[in-house]
Amino acid sequence: MSESTTIVAFDQHAATTVAAVLLPGHQTPALHALTSDSATIVRFLRRLSATGPVQCLYEAGPCGFDLQRALGAEQFPCDVIAPALIPRRPGDRIKTDRRDATHLAVLYRAGALTAIHIPTEQEEAARDLLRCREQIRADLLRARHRLSKFLLRHGRRFTATKNTWSKRHHQWLQTQRWPLAALEHTHRAYVRAVDEAVAQLQAIETELRDVLVLEPLRTRVETLRCFRGIDDLTALTVAAELGDARRFPSAPRVMAFTGLVPAEYSSGTSRARGRITKTGNAHLRRVLVEAAWHYRHPPFVGDPLRRRQRGAPPGAIAHAWAAQCRLHRRYRRLAARGKPKQHIVTAIARELSGFLWAALTQPSDRPTSKGESSGFLCDR
User: Fold this and answer.
1) Per-residue pLDDT tens over the stretch 224-256
2) How do 30-35 and 16-22 pair as beta strands?
3) How confident is the model over 255-309, as pLDDT tens digits?
4) Rounded to an integer, what distance in angstroms lies between the CA atom of residue 352 and that of residue 289?
5) How far apart are CA 35 and CA 296, in angstroms?
6) What pTM, to 2 d.p., does this model score?
7) Rounded CA gap, 344 and 350, in Å?
């Protein structure tokens, strides 16, 4: 960044924004109160840009990336800063919008801030739809719990089959009658809540199928589906939450981003490691752990996986097979040492993220070997 660049740090809220303008050669920024609409901020920056180049920044928050995209469309460079990585003095107990904006401007000039990755609009839309699906699934689980506990309190149990929430179970729910009107209304309300959540979930999953064919997600999904335990929705979640994997210089950086690396406190000759940090992307970490459970089984390419790999790049298939062989050996080795299954799967998920990064960033053109394509077991 040139020394003649004016730094403009925004502390953005829903209705108001404070802009801290740090001019070249100045130590203290000038503060300006603005409204939060993008048009007002763009006009403000145009006046500033008449005297020289302008660099904008603001802290990531609930207002999202609309401001960054609006400024980018007007050719104003804008960084979005990671809030958790902003240095803060332990004794500082005063927090205001003006102080926050000033703090951002001074630290940015000192090079002490870390900018986050800005997803494309397509990536953000897919990510929001996936998170909406997760929330609806949680709502469905709560609705089913309320209904089942209501029935249990009144001695109503479904015993026709062992499977609940099936078509036959739904028919049984519709036939239930109650002696009191209040109980009848309660039952209908709980059943209606379950039916509405199921309908919403089905609609969301149908819309997600349409997102699978859109770029840049389609290419990433085709590569990720080559891996065991990763089908359409899991691959789409990884593709949307991880973004462009090329922004990570190495596999350990991806592992740190997922929060699957162990915490460490070492000093002198002592070395202490604890639980995983959980400081990264929780949605990505969850699907990686779910996929990691599949690697407790011996390496094998069955019909479902072979169909998913049909037409995929040979390099992605090679990475997927190498992941099966290595991660299963890793699982057996840790299990033989008496490690808990949850700890083993977490370690497998960490290494799996490295294989996914390699497949997305370093595709090999090596053709698939006979053993990899025919489903034979590898040497374990």
Assistant:
1) 999 999 999 999 999 999 999 999 999 999 999
2) antiparallel
3) 999 999 998 888 888 888 888 988 888 999 999 999 999 999 999 999 999 999 9
4) 9
5) 55
6) 0.85
7) 10
Domain residue extents for the chain: 6-109, 121-211, 217-374
% of the chain with per-residue pLDDT over 70: 95
DSSP state of 165: S
Compute the residue count for the chain. 380
Mean pLDDT score across all residues of the chain: 91
Give me the amino acid identity at 46. Answer: R
Provide the pairing of β-strand 270-276 with 262-267.
Answer: antiparallel
* Superfamily of segment(s) 6-109: MutS, connector domain (3.30.420.110)
Q: How far apart are CA 80 and CA 118, in angstroms?
A: 8
- Using the structure block, give the residue that is written with the tokens 């400024």: 71
How far, in whole angstroms, is CA 184 from its chain's centroid? 42
> Is residue 360 within 8 Å of 223, Cβ to Cβ?
yes
Tokens 């901020």 found at: 41
- Read off φ and ψ for residue 298, nearest 5 degrees: -60, 150
Q: Do 332 and 299 contact (CB within 8 A), yes or no?
A: no
* Cα distance from N-terminal residue to C-terminal residue, the chain: 53
